[in-house]
Write a structure and sequence with these properties.
The protein has 487 residues and is mainly α. The chain has a domain of 169 residues: Orthogonal Bundle (Cytochrome Bc1 Complex, Chain D, domain 2). Helix content is 33%, strand content 5%. The strands form three sheets. Strands 1-2-3 form a three-stranded antiparallel β-sheet, with no helix packed on it. Helix 4 crosses helix 8 and helix 10 crosses helix 14. The longest helix is centred in the N-terminal third of the chain and has 18 residues. The N terminus and C terminus are likely disordered.
Length: 487
């Protein structure tokens, strides 16, 4: 099921995963039928629905996967911590405050966490329509992105954006799980946040290796779609932080935040506690947010308990799903215990000309259409799955990977398609939807707790414009999370 916000109201924002494009001002309601859209432009060479050759290949790959994973699975490794940025409680809580503070954006409407709500698997529960590479709404390359900021000039005055008008802009990729890639050497869907972290002001290398989270954490702050006005500088960011009350726009602050603010009520005070001096710099902002993210290890799923010897942590049906998963090609890319790998793969979701993915960074033709393999931990909590945000359930995802799904062939992963016997489908979905969910994430419990964010009234209007179907889906998901989303 795929749904969009009304493009005439324009919404936006994701995780900093896109380049700004300028195409014309034509708008319209996006297509809500992926199959129809793909069929309309299906290229020669699309993998047919019934291909015994592919089925045999899939079975052989499954045997290889079985040989690799039908053995004891190691526990989750410790989160890598660069020596230049050791974890301290003071730095972690500063990072938490920065991550959830909407004052970090130019117009004070968007926090880092706005598009990465923990109880939605670190993703965005509100999806907006992006027109894709062709710049036109209602075509097969449309994307369910995240809401960002209204386009503003260098003076902070709203301008008539060629795509989104005076409404909020929308990112051209969905928001990934921000705490699911703590072990990755590159971050973002295309991997452009690298392991080397350089000082944003001086260019001096601060972390030669292991600074992916630092690189990732500061990128959205100056991004003119996600959080910034045109021409925003780090001086304007740090000057504002020096003079505002931390989390002044938020409410229901978590206990650790309340404790920190009781003794350090200003950002200079918080930076003194974390770094020893009151200097607020972009490098320190990146260090603090990355430190906070490294404390968010979602390792208390039923699967984790099952692997530690609790035989009833997974239901018999979920155990059947796990047994299939670990002996299938699924485990090649989504390898346990992280249920991810540092790889970039194409699953044939879209034509590579819609979004060239990893090739944006490398320029290599063989990387066209490849995207970072995300973790499956807590993936079922997300509203929009895949980099396009077009699937809303694990059943949709599982059925896409099967031979009957439409898979564009350019640079397609050799694991695709995957033959999933009818008797394995329901157990596999059950395992993904329930066996890999950390209850602390779903319920928003520490360390995954967060404040309630403030949102301008126009966003509530935008939500109403999504339509009854979208709202019913969102309300159903909210009920499942056991905690209402309050913006």
């Amino acid at each position: 099921m795929r749904w969009h916000a009304n493009p005439t109201i324009q919404q936006d924002r994701n995780d900093s995963d896109f380049a700004r494009r300028r195409w014309g001002s034509r708008t319209g309601r996006p297509s809500t039928n992926r199959s129809r859209g793909l069929a309309a432009r299906a290229p020669f060479g699309l993998i047919p629905s019934s291909s015994w050759g592919w089925i045999l290949v899939t079975l052989l790959v499954g045997l290889v996967a079985s040989a690799s994973f039908a053995q004891p699975v190691p526990p989750i490794p410790p989160v890598p911590v660069p020596p230049a940025n050791p974890i301290t409680p003071e730095k972690a809580v500063l990072g938490k405050i920065l991550f959830w503070d909407q004052q970090l954006s130019s117009d004070q409407t968007v926090a880092c966490g706005t598009c990465h709500l923990t109880e939605f698997g670190g993703g965005d529960p509100v999806l907006g329509a992006h027109p894709g590479a062709d710049g036109f709404f209602g075509t097969p390359d449309d994307v369910n992105g995240s809401l960002g900021v209204v386009h503003r000039d260098v003076q902070g005055v709203a301008v008539n954006d060629p795509i989104f008008g005076f409404g909020r802009q929308v990112t051209d990729r969905s928001s990934p799980n921000f705490f699911g890639g703590l072990w990755d050497p590159e971050s973002f869907w295309d991997g452009r946040a690298s392991s080397a972290f350089d000082d944003p002001i001086t260019g001096v290398n601060l972390i030669p290796i292991g600074g992916t989270l630092e690189s990732q954490s500061i990128a959205p702050i100056l991004n003119s779609i996600e959080m910034a006005r045109d021409g925003r500088t780090w001086t304007s960011v740090t000057t504002r932080l020096a003079g505002v009350k931390p989390l002044a726009l938020a409410s229901a602050l978590p206990a650790d935040v309340v404790t920190a603010l009781a003794t350090s009520p200003s950002y200079p005070d918080l930076f003194i506690a974390a770094f020893g001096t009151a200097d607020i710099t972009p490098a320190r902002i990146g260090f603090a947010i990355a430190t906070y993210e490294r404390t968010l290890v979602a390792d208390q799923t039923p699967w984790d308990a099952f692997m530690k010897g609790s035989g009833t942590a997974l239901t018999p049906n979920q155990q059947d799903g796990w047994n299939f998963f670990q002996t299938s090609p699924c485990a090649t890319c989504h390898a346990p215990p992280l249920f991810s790998t540092p790889r970039f793969e194409s699953v044939g979701l879209r034509d590579v000309n819609d979004d060239i993915g990893r090739a944006v960074v490398t320029g290599a033709p063989t990387d066209r259409g490849l995207f970072k393999v995300p973790t499956l931990r807590n993936a079922a909590l997300k509203v929009g799955v895949m980099h396009t945000g077009e699937f809303s359930t694990m059943l949709d995802v599982v059925r896409f990977y099967q031979p009957a799904g439409l898979h564009f062939p350019t640079n397609l992963s050799p694991q695709i398609p995957i033959l999933i016997p009818p008797t394995a489908e329901a157990p596999l979905v059950d395992f993904l939807e329930n066996g890999l969910i950390d209850p602390r994430v779903a319920a928003g419990l520490a360390p995954f707790d967060r404040p309630i964010l403030a949102v301008p009234e126009p966003v509530r209007v935008e939500l109403l414009a999504v339509g009854a179907l979208a709202l019913s889906v969102l309300e159903g998901l909210r009920a499942r999370r056991r905690r209402p989303v309050v913006f």
